[in-house]
Design brief:
With 162 residues, the protein is mainly alpha-helical. Helix content is 46%, strand content 4%. It has a two-stranded antiparallel ribbon. Pfam families: Terminase_4.
């Protein structure tokens, strides 16, 4: 049963000005913002995306060390998507009929190009598992934990009265 879009992290709501006290989870875990190091296995495209998004997420105070795997999954999926799009573009240049979206098997049957599907499925599964453990910002809004003492350096602490 789907109940709508995933909730946004409270810190993001505060920054955007859409936070409403009546809808806030008072027991949302508070993890100190931090810049995680990128895993060694990231592709060059994924590393470029890692730098781009971590700069922005850190500036907003959203990303934490615990988000490393979920962020790596996103970046690797982005990198694979970029690689797949380039490969599909090259195939499209040679295939005027299906633009590379269909391929022929050795038996001569036309099938959908599986280039992107395998990588997307693996990354979607990884993100789903990360969310189950509360390792994404949106998942933390649904976790009820003991409220910890506020961090005086927390950019959103003034909004929580802590």
């Amino acid at each position: 049963m789907t109940r709508g879009p995933k909730p946004k992290p409270t810190a993001l709501k505060v920054i955007r000005g859409t936070d409403r006290a009546a809808r806030r989870n008072p027991s949302e875990p508070r993890v100190a913002p931090a810049r995680p190091d990128p895993p060694d296995h990231l592709s060059s495209e994924a590393r470029t995306e890692w730098q781009r998004v971590t700069d922005q997420l850190c500036a907003a105070g959203i990303v934490t060390g615990i988000d490393r795997a979920a962020l790596a999954a996103y970046c690797q999926a982005y990198g694979r998507w970029e690689q797949a799009e380039r490969a599909l573009e090259a195939m499209a240049a040679r295939d005027q009929v299906t633009a590379g979206l269909m391929i022929r098997t050795q038996g001569g049957n036309a099938i959908q190009n599986p280039l992107v599907g395998t990588a997307n499925k693996a990354m979607a599964d990884m993100m789903r598992y990360a969310a189950e453990f509360g390792m994404t910002p949106s998942a933390r809004t649904q976790i009820h934990a003991e409220v910890s003492a506020s961090d005086p350096d927390d950019p959103v602490a003034k909004y929580f009265g802590g």
